[in-house]
Write a sequence for this structure.
């Protein structure tokens, strides 16, 4: 299996932010794509690429409909609940959706002899960083149910590789950002909790003032530092992963980030330059569970996957997001 052949790929969560960009990239690369989504947080307007099957990973019969009569070369799994604070309040929902749902999906893959799996994990598996540049060898100590739900699946994938020979790539995302450069798809969460969309929304809708959570972090300007990676770069790594699994058995994990940290105030400055006016904000108390600094060492992905991110410049990332937020499609 190589990405030069025409592949059939299942994208769970393909109506969401990352999944819709992935479905599009797969289709545009000439492969066949099937999207499976319960539309709980995804958007039917984002279902423009490939076949769509509405279903919920918590219902094995729904999953069976997606596998019945199809033979997939690999499965991408973006269907997850992702809000840290909500995971603290509703751990059952997070473990049910993120763990049980994934277990059901893996069972269907076993039943149908589909042996390649790309899993969306998160930098939240590292917890409080003990090194400036976080490599995959950093200790794993998630601080909340969301991070734990992802780490449990990572561990399960190691057991499945040993016992069942399941091949997988586990990607630990840093901060996914930006939108497709043509501005027709992008990020739209409700409620929106992410920094860049909230900055842009506050500039578009003057009634919506930006809040900065925390100003006393042990960082140069007191605000949290993050590593922003463009959505298209994130997706291109996933396609490279399919190729990688055809050459490498077992389970493999890779950080996905740009390796450059920006504080919240630096992101606001960059966004002001893109928009062409100052962004107003208020400081609020720090959010529970936010790490002061999360910056990736992604050298393993660069070397092993031959992955080449195209959007290393933060302004360019924000520009694509701004185009989307201003578009009638948003
Ligand atoms: N943040 C903020 N205001 C917002 C949204 C986020 O100050 O409206 C902060 C948040 O506390 C964190 C950083 O921006 O320090 C990035 O948050 P985001 O939710 O985008 O990603 P996370 O790093 O939490 O996955």
């Amino acid at each position: 299996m190589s990405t030069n052949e025409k592949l059939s790929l299942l994208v769970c969560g393909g109506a969401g932010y990352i999944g819709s960009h992935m479905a599009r990239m797969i289709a545009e690369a000439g492969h066949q794509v099937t999207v499976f989504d319960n539309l709980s947080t995804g958007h039917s307007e984002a279902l423009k690429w490939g076949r769509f099957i509405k279903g919920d990973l918590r219902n094995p019969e729904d999953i069976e409909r997606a596998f019945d009569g199809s033979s997939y070369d690999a499965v991408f799994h973006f269907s997850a609940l992702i809000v840290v604070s909500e995971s603290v309040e509703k751990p059952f929902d997070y473990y049910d959706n993120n763990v049980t749902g994934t277990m059901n999906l893996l069972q269907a893959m076993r039943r149908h002899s589909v042996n390649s799996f790309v899993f969306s994990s998160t930098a939240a598996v590292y917890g409080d960083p003990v090194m400036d540049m976080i490599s995959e060898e950093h200790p794993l100590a998630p601080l909340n149910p969301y991070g734990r739900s992802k780490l449990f699946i990572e561990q399960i994938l190691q057991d499945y590789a040993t016992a069942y020979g399941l091949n997988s790539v586990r990607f630990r995302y840093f901060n996914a950002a930006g939108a497709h450069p043509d501005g027709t798809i992008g990020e739209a969460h409700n409620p929106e909790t992410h920094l860049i969309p909230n900055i842009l929304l506050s500039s578009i809708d003057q009634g919506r003032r930006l809040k900065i959570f925390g100003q006393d972090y042990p960082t140069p300007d007191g605000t949290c530092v993050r590593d922003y990676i463009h959505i298209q770069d994130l997706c291109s790594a996933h396609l490279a992963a399919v190729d990688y699994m055809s050459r490498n058995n077992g389970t493999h994990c890779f950080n996905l980030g740009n390796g450059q940290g920006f504080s919240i105030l630096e992101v606001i400055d960059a966004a002001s330059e893109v928009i062409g006016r100052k962004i107003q904000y208020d400081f609020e108390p720090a959010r529970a569970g936010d790490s002061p600094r999360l910056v990736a060492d992604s050298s393993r992905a660069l070397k092993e996957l031959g992955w080449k991110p195209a959007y290393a410049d933060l302004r360019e990332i924000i520009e694509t997001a701004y185009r989307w937020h201003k578009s009638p499609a948003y």
